[in-house]
Amino acid sequence: MPILSYLVLPQDGAMDQLCSDLSSMEYCEIIPADNQEVVVLVTDTPDDKVEETLQETLKNLPSLQSFSMTYGHNAV
Amino acid sequence: MPYNKQGEKEDNMKLNRRSFIKSAAAGSAIAAAGSIFPGISFANWKEQTGSAGQITWKKAPCRFCGTGCGVLVGVSGDRAVAVKGDPNCSVNKGLCCVKGFHVVQALYGKDRLRTAKVRRGGKMVEVPVSEALDIIAAKMKQTIKETGKDSVAMYGSGQWTIPDGYVASKLFKGCIGTNNVEANARLCMASAVTGFLTSFGTDEPMGCYEDIEHADVFVTWGNNMAEMHPVLFSRMLASRKRRGNVEIIDLATRSTRSSQASDKSILFKPNTDLAVANAICYEIIRNDWVNWDFVKKHTTFHKGKTNIGYGTEDHFKFKDAPEDISFEEYKEFLSDYTPKKVEKISGVSARDIKYLASLYGDPSKKCTSFWCMGMNQHVRGTWINNLVYNIHLLTGKISTPGNSPFSLTGQPSACGTVREVGTLTHKLPHGVVMKEAHRKMAAEIWDVPLTNIDPKPTYHTVEMFRALDRGDIRFIWIQVTNPMITMPNLTRYRNGALKDDRFIVVSDVYPTPTTDVADVVLPAAMWVEQEGMYGNSERRTQHFDRIVPGPGETMSDTWQIIEVARRLGYEKQFPWGEDEYIGKIWEEYRRFHDSPKHNMAPYDVLKKRSGVQWPFVDGKETRWRFNSKYDPACKPGSEFDFYGKKDGKAWIWARPYEPAAESPDDEYDFWLNTGRVIEHWHTGTMTRRVPVLHRAVPESYVEIHPEDAMNLGVTNGEMVKIISRRGEVTMKASIDGRGKPPRGMVFVPFFDESYKINEVTLDAFCPISKQPDYKKCAVRLEKA
Fold it and tell me: B194 and B177, same structural domain?
């Protein structure tokens, strides 16, 4: 049951779209910065397989420029 | 359904645990964002995480430095489990530094003091707190009877809450009748106080943190803000990034993270900031950058005594003798400080001095100067404060948004508890013990006979510990501070405390080298385990509730003092109940400041807001003092009114350059400079018990210039012995680490009690403020 957090940067001009995309995805909670184009993403998935799938989805998200992990926890 | 040991349903427990982990994950990402994107804010975090209903969030000021960041403490059950910046607090607007983000963990170290201990037969044994309080009161009575009221003393702290310091002052000065009350803010703030008093006649900054968003130029004087005041430094960087035309100049004796982030780094030789400041004033006058309208209307010129000594001997006395001088005499005095002459003294190029003067002198630029320990822990600390004020007064860049000479504080309530409540030997909550009117006010509010309050100050901090060593003081109660790490020339004062007929009481939250010398240890409530108030650097009073219970028999420092006061027979002066005492004490204390110059906010207002600035007049806070546009205490019709002085005019001082008390010579050929790192706060009592902070910087070290290290034959991490005329410490070398001293200087952080660097430092102090200089003494190095 992994819980991970990331700093996520949007493509130019795509902050609103990125927030919309991430907040509509299952297992994702977001905290957008209110004065810069940066989003904190916290993911809470039931198992490693779902986690892998979610990460692949994130990598292919058009509104997302980059994301870097800041925290990881994986235990029952 | 399975249950845990507390009878909680396991599903709920798992949910709580996962919520906690998710909160930690979010907090980690926000902390990382804060270090990468200066000024970034996540104001909506509270609502989003709070919606889960697992954690309740309550406001408090951060426990650590004097910035006064507002935090929200996440509480689950009886435990503080999370923390985040308070977006409603104007100080930090949701930001926190690495210490702030981990502050709640400091509550839960494994070795928290939970019970009282008393020394019996050479060993510390646990006793009920009530028994320990009986012993303290009995010992105080006995000591006063045998050796007089001035043989008992209280040594407190800029980490005392305002009520802690207030009841200490009331008990010792008002009831017992001794002025033996001091606080560790003497070691960090006293020169700022005497600087304000001598230049303006009244204490504390005229500006506020909002200056950061208005200033075009920042000059940091001996002040590594990137590590010591990181949230304010982030605000500076954010302002520069947003506005583009902002310049930051780091003026210091060693290169630090602040130097790296600044637009220009200028290094000066220790103690020569006095000469540099005078040279800036010389250039301002030579180029006719003086704001004559301001200077003629609002300033007068003065000089004081010179060659004033260093206080290294017991019973040292000094009293300044100010004289009026003319502008022409002041100008003549500055002729010794041409940029070329000062280049030779200070090592700062004439070009750089002229550049600094041109920034301050440019009428189109708003200038803010920041300083902290570099200028205050200085054998001429009062003078260098005066000289930086001179620069701002000559150019009229003061008391307006963005134009601010700003002394920062290092402790959360050095201003609130020590400077405002007046927990120093000469002070009262309003005014000084020497003035009858001030004693009368105190006697009336405290309901004690006027004759109880002694008109003569006794011992400032260094002299107080000398008196303990000599035996003039026999009983001392130490609260919320760790002098057996922080006193300079430490060996003398530790040996003094250990003498057989001395009685030491220590109230603290963890075992320290100071509890090691105690005869009685009282377990104290910490931070949000009690209700209280702090006062930060910008005249902001910050209330916090008791948010979680303290462990074991812990008790607030205020309540400890009240319990002892009642045992001494002062029930009438300390009548309050445990459910009301903080509010009652605040409203009594507020009577001392009932004027437009210093009015404090009522208790119910403090409880609601994330801090309120004084003077608080007609429901409004005062952002900039001495400017009639903002400050209701100014005379009507005056543009500026420096009302601390009788004529409403600020003083420009002719103060010369004089060298440090001890400089390198053939035998001891290095400067020793001491200070802090971002991860640890003061002596590390709290931060070294936070695993992530401890792991980040697990031990202290000595920074050495690479060429000096090469000459010693030392490589990074090898052991170096630092030897002074007073003691020696052996520790690891740090070469090209985060701080880089120039050749001939070493720097040691003092947070690590395993390396008592203050056994090496010198107990010289500013003769006016009596604040010791921890930044300059002479040492020699050996490869260990």
Answer: no
Whether the CB-CB separation of B720 and B730 falls below 8 Å is answered with yes
Q: What is the C-alpha to C-alpha distance for residues B361 and B357, in angstroms, rounded to an integer?
A: 6
| Closest alpha carbon within chain B to A74 | B21
Q: What is the DSSP string of B209-222?
A: TTHHHH-SEEEEES
pLDDT, one tens digit per residue, over B81-130 is 999 999 889 999 899 999 999 999 999 999 999 999 999 999 999 999 99
Q: At B15, is the pLDDT very low, low, confident or very high (cuts 50, 70, 90)?
A: low
Q: Are residues B194 and B181 in the same domain?
A: no
Do the strands B367-371 and B612-613 form a parallel or antiparallel pair, or are they unpaired?
Answer: unpaired
Supply the CATH number for residue B536's domain.
Answer: 3.40.50.740
User: What's A2-62's CATH class?
Assistant: alpha beta
What's the pLDDT tens digit per position in B487-499?
A: 999 999 999 999 9
Q: Please write the tens of the pLDDT for every residue from B608-667.
A: 998 999 999 999 999 999 999 999 999 999 999 999 999 999 999 999 999 999 999 999
C-alpha to C-alpha distances, B215 to B251, B260, B717, nearest whole angstrom: 17, 20, 41
CB pair distance less than 8 Å for A5 and B28: yes
Using alpha carbons, list the distances in angstroms from residue B465 to B155, B505, B769. 10, 14, 16
Cα of A22 to nearest chain B Cα, Å: 15
Q: Nearest C-alpha of chain B: how many angstroms from A45? A: 11
Cβ atoms within 10 Å of B259's Cβ, excluding its own: 22
Q: Where in the sequence is the domain holding B495, given as residue range(s)?
A: 116-188+413-613
Asked if pLDDT for residue B223 goes beyond 90, the answer is yes
For residue B602, the tally of other CB atoms under 10 A from its CB is 15
Closest residue in chain B to residue A38, using alpha carbons only: B33
Give the containing element (helix H, strand E) for B154: strand B152-156
B181-212 pLDDT, tens digit each = 999 999 999 999 999 999 999 999 999 999 99
Alpha carbons B775 and B762: distance in angstroms, whole number: 9
Give the angle B568-B570-B571 at the CA atoms, nearest 5°. 115
> Which residues of B are identified as catalytic?
99, 188-189, 373, 410-411
Write the CB contacts of B228 (distance below 8 Å, at least 6 apart in sequence): B65, B372, B373, B408, B410, B675, B676, B678
Complex ipTM tops 0.90: yes
Q: Domain segments of chain A: what residues?
A: 2-62
Amino acid at B39: G
Q: How far is CA B158 from CA B412, B475, B482, B657, in A?
A: 7, 21, 12, 30
Cβ-proximal residues to B612 (8 Å cutoff; 6+ apart), any chain: B540, B541, B601, B605, B606, B621
The Cα-based distances of B583 to B178, B545, B620 in angstroms read 26, 11, 21
Count of C-beta atoms within a 10 Å radius of residue A53:
12
Pairing relationship of beta strands B702-704 and B728-735 according to DSSP bridges: parallel
> Do B133 and B90 have their domain in common?
no
Looking at the structure, do residues B183 and B148 belong to the same domain, yes or no? yes
Residue B275 has phi, psi (to 5 degrees) of -70, -40
Q: What is the mean pLDDT of chain B?
A: 95
Which residue of chain A comes nearest to B52, CA vs CA? A29
Q: Tell me the per-residue pLDDT of B140-169, one tens digit each, with 9 for 90 and over.
A: 999 999 999 999 999 999 999 999 999 999
Backbone angles phi, psi at B201, to 5 degrees: 80, 0
Query: Smallest Cβ distance to B30: which of A3, A4, A40?
Result: A40
Cβ-based neighbours of B256, under 8 Å, separated by 6 or more = B224, B226, B227, B250, B738, B739, B740
How far is Cα B84 from Cα B31, in angstroms, rounded to an integer?
9
DSSP B614: S
Distance from CA of B37 to the nearest CA of A (A): 8
Answer yes or no: do B208 and B318 share one domain.
yes
Query: How many domains, in total, are found in chain B?
Result: 4
